[in-house]
Design brief:
mainly alpha; Homeodomain-like_sf; Transposase
Length: about 130
């Protein structure tokens, strides 16, 4: 029997990571905090969340940083570095690496030259 999927493609379903709006996070934290002690778990199960979500969101709320409630890793509003700036940074790191390599190579050549001169002096003295 032949497969209908082309070779090299991944037939497995890849779920999309959930994202939460700041308003949703604040609503869930308020609901969780207002729930009686024996019903807090029900709130988490209903929303398919972990206590760590609520803990992190509460800390951000208490710090007065509503903008910190936006997940920077998955937020569509994430600012991108300008292409030229990113390229400049990449080239700067490359130049630094090459300069270090050049200094190391110069030091190695200097040591080799001194060793060669020393060997020549030794061989002349043996003659």
């Amino acid at each position: 029997m032949t497969s209908t999927t082309p070779a090299g493609s991944d037939p497995a379903f890849r779920p999309k990571r959930r994202t939460f709006s700041p308003e949703y996070k604040l609503r869930i934290v308020a609901e969780y905090d207002a729930a009686p002690k024996n019903e807090k778990g029900a709130v988490l199960r209903r929303e398919r969340l972990y206590h760590s979500h609520v803990k992190e969101w509460r800390a951000a709320r208490d710090a007065g940083a509503l903008e910190k409630l936006v997940d920077r890793r998955t937020s569509p509003a994430r600012p991108k570095k300008p292409a030229a700036g990113a390229e400049n940074e990449k080239l700067r790191r490359h130049v630094e690496r090459l300069e270090k390599e050049l200094a190391r190579n110069k030091a190695a050549l200097e040591v080799m030259g001194e060793a060669s001169a020393l060997l020549e002096m030794i061989s002349e003295g043996a003659d």
